[in-house]
Amino acid sequence: MTAGFVIAVDGPAAAGKGTLARALADAYSLPYLDTGLLYRAVARRVLDAGLRPEDAAEEAALRLVPEDMQRNDLRVPEVDRAASIVAAQPAVRAALLERQRVFGREGGAVVDGRDIGTVVFPDAPVKLFITASSQIRAMRRHNQLNVGVELEGAALEAAIAEIESRDTRDSQRDVAPLCPADDALTINTDGMSAAEVFQKACDYIALRRS
Ligand code: CDP
Ligand code: CDP
């Protein structure tokens, strides 16, 4: 892969960004960066300090160390919510921007998040916007965490509402809102397996490189 080749993978929660990005990183021998972990780690620090995610969180973002992103309590519902609240703060986003750019600049990378193709790497040669209906995404996230337990009725409705409220916060914030870059390929993954999404992405990458 060409030096500095960045594949940007954006989209809403539980659409399959991480699954695709990891498979692409493997296939093209590129490092993978999950930028959601940065925002989750900031939220974790804020909550652990007894602060509210609405409080100024720049300090927490500036103090992040690699171990913060390796904690095993970053993918819990209170952090899902808090991450999307701290992520709306311009000072938090500014504090994390260069860290993300340095990662991709040297040897290239597959980077997943919300604003990778629009803000972090606006010149990335490949931009993918991975999406799916909120119902499918709620079920995917549930199945990921509760193998073998059916999600239905009121619990399904609550999971959909949770995912939609995060979508709204992420797409309506003033700074770096979630939206496809003008030059992104959008893949609606409803009814597609992870393998089918991967194949479609690889075909597109081959086209972009030819
Ligand atoms: O990174 P993001 O939150 O966008 O989603 P993910 O963690 O990659 O995917 C959420 C779940 O959906 C995982 O368990 C994937 O295996 C699953 N998935 C799927 O069922 N079908 C797809 N086309 C893509 C992902
Ligand atoms: O895995 P999932 O898609 O559920 O979430 P994530 O990618 O770990 O991101 C958690 C939260 O961080 C998102 O809801 C966004 O508010 C924020 N985020 C962001 O604002 N910009 C990014 N590049 C990545 C994540």
Query: In CATH's first tier, which class applies?
Result: Alpha Beta
Q: What value does the Rg take, in angstroms?
A: 17 Å
Query: Strands across the major sheet, in which order?
Result: 2-3-1-4-5
| Topology-level CATH name | Rossmann fold
CATH architecture: 3-Layer(aba) Sandwich
Roughly what is the average pLDDT, rounded to an integer? 95
How many helical elements? Answer: 9
Order of helices and strands: EHEHHHHEHEHHEH
Label the overall shape. globular
Record field, number of beta strands: 5
| Ligands present | cytidine-5'-diphosphate
Structural class: alpha/beta
Strand composition percent: 5-15%
Q: Termini separation (Å)?
A: 12 Å
- What's the CATH H-level superfamily name? P-loop containing nucleotide triphosphate hydrolases
Helix percentage: 40-55%
Largest sheet: number of strands, sense, barrel closure: 5 strands, parallel
Give the tally of structural domains.
1
Short description:
The chain is 51% helix and 11% strand. It contains 9 helices and 5 strands. Helix 1 crosses helix 9 (194-209).
Task: Walk me through what this model shows.
By secondary structure, this protein is of the alpha/beta class. The protein has one domain (6-209): P-loop containing nucleotide triphosphate hydrolases (Rossmann fold). 51% of the residues lie in helices and 11% in strands. The protein has 9 helices and 5 strands. It has helices at 17-27, 36-48, 58-62, 77-86, 90-105, 116-120, 134-145, 153-172, 194-209; strands spanning 6-10, 32-34, 109-113, 126-131, 185-188. α1 packs across α9 (194-209), α2 (36-48) crosses α4 and α7 (134-145) crosses α8 (153-172). The longest helix is centred in the C-terminal third of the chain and has 20 residues, at 153-172. The protein is globular. The structure holds cytidine-5'-diphosphate (2 copies). The site of one cytidine-5'-diphosphate has 14 residues, from α2, α4 and α8. It catalyses: dCMP + ATP = dCDP + ADP; CMP + ATP = CDP + ADP. Its EC number is 2.7.4.25. ATP binds at residues 11-19.
